[in-house]
Amino acid sequence: MRKEKLLDLLKQMTREEKIGQLVQVAGEVFLMDNVSVTTGPLKSLELSNEMLYQVGSILNIVGSEKIRKVQDEYLSKSRLKIPLLFMADVINGYRTVFPIPIAQGCSWDKEVVYNCTKISIQEAGASGANVNFSPMVDLVRDSRWGRVMESIGGEDPYLGEVFAKTMVEAYQGEDISKLGNAAACVKHFAAYGAAEAGRDYNTVDMSEREFRQYYLPAYQSAIENGAEMIMTSFNTINGIPASVNPWLLRELLRKELGFQGIVISDYSAIEETIAHGVCKDKKEAAYKAIMAGVDIDMMSNVYANHLKDLVEEGKVSERLLDEAVLRILTLKNKLGLFENPYGNTNEEREKKVLKSKHNLQAARKLTADTFVLLKNEQQILPLNKENKKIALIGPYADNISILGSWSIFSDKSKIPTLKHAFEEKMGTQNILYAKGSEILEEKEINPILIADGGKPIHIENEKEKQKQLLEEAIEVAKQADIIVLAIGEHYRQSGEACSRANIEISQIQQNLLNELSKLKKKIVTILFNGRPLVLKNIAEKTDALLEVWFPGTEGANSITDVIFGDVNPSGKLTMSFPQAVGQCPIYYNYYNTGRPHINNYRYVSRYQDIPTQSYYPFGYGLSYSKFEYSDLKISSNKMSKNNPITVTVKVKNYSNIPGKEVIQMYIQDLVASIVRPVKELKSFKKEYFRPWEEKQITFEITEEMLKFWNEKLEHKAEEGEFKVFIGSNSEDTIEEIFEYREAN
Ligand code: NOJ
Fold first, then answer.
1. pTM of structure
2. Mind listing the pLDDT tens digit for each residue in 448-479?
3. For atom 4 of ligand 1, which residue has the closest CA?
């Protein structure tokens, strides 16, 4: 449809119809019969039936049949036949589930992230999703926050930028109306990941410079690469909730960054500004949100019930309303919904695409590239398929809950467990199995179940049962040559509203490991979790440690591929793992203090009881190959804008195992007008090496890489000396010095 036609359509709309476009409700309300609609959820939303058939979009209803039913019913009652938009949370997969986003980022591989994203949206699109609430690009530094699992770039702004672009490209392609594409909604704008003390929804207060330097780049990258939508965050930013923050949404987002797409609030976030204490009632919340620039109100009724009065009272102009409506009509038009209101969904396609053999095979391959090998003493891994008896022990040894907390549309049938996967590789006779323990004790799981609206459980004779599970595990372990222990967080311990003050594996699982370690057998631990954990005890009692996060549908098969050496692990951490929770927030690109912790003097910036550095640093991850770095050379030790320089390094695989290595380049501005981090990631390359192969790897250093937000909030490079570091993680590097001049 041409723009003039859209403007025509807008002209024909009544004020109520326009306001309807700015309202989003959860899809269930359409799938209920009339009685329950008017007495059930709708009543609590206080939406009139008339308004229901004017709302512009729907949340989390997918499935070809459902979409057709809802769209048909809606259009049959809609005066102007403006189709509904269907938006969904397809975070790390739809029917086929991929590793959680933080794991995908640990691949440090654009192709891996692209393919996980692409297949997810191909499946969700076949089921009718027009818009996906992804990518989540919030920068995260505090593992107490449960949503670090969703962060594609982890603690690094550059990784966030790179993967934001990759994901938007994968979702949207060249044309969002085409088969296999959909609109991306980048979230949560802004700085949601900086919640104080890692407590979800909590206050964010930071300098504008800090915000621009670290938190903004990933959102900006998604916007510059064409993301059609952006979602506001729940938190306040410097005193004002994001959803009613005119500086954030009008000045920065629209004017400075030039964002033309739709702004949607997070779930009931507009109404929550009343609880924040910046709006006295829903009417004021509606006023402040629309004035700030929020186009769609997700699941609070403040726009539906108050915008009309605000316009009639002359407080909100019709023009403002029209602008928001036009943005929504424009997206519907770009998606081709006026011509085909069902988008790309039909039942036949759905059957063909969802969890297809191709998608499962792809998932198995992609997933293995997201694992991070944290420890491998005496090269105990990979295991030999032939001769050993393996005791597979732990609550994750035969468990399908390995999809992560966002797997709301997943197909949970036929998910291989580790036990199946091990038996497939080795045959049944050499695999002994024991559960060993539950993931959590009754007292730990109950608060989670209750918060989810479920009933608490009661485990009769819990202590005795625990003892029995432990004894069985020890018996099994005694008969084996090697122990493979599968432990981790419960999948509901990470995700939204899953902040934790203690970020260790539960005591019963630690106890299991402690007891097994007394047998003095080799232990390989496989770790399922959604956040960096405090791993000291586990790492010390374990010979090999493989971080697999929540790996998704094909996770178990991918794990055995890595454990038995069919795939060489190549993931690297995107978040620092702390020594103790007291270190949080911890990140590699920190500022030096005036008293850096160089040695053990008393009056330096350090902890008395633990080291200052992380337990596992950013960028860290082992391989079955052995990579060595040497001969760092820069093309010149002077550079300027027009004379960028290159830096080269030799990387050699000193092993007969082929493998991939992520070569990382960091830069430090040694003296500047404001403090600068000890190092910042500026580029990386993931390269494949044949056995004993040596490669010369080259990076360019450009002026752009040296820029930062100075005290006047200008984004500029300053003249002076810089250090370039290259290495296999943020701590293990070799370095050189160069000088930057504006002109030379
Ligand atoms: C709340 C979450 O914060 C957001 O990430 C999600 O997209 C919405 N709910 C919709 O489900």
1. 0.98
2. 999 888 999 999 999 999 999 999 999 999 99
3. 266
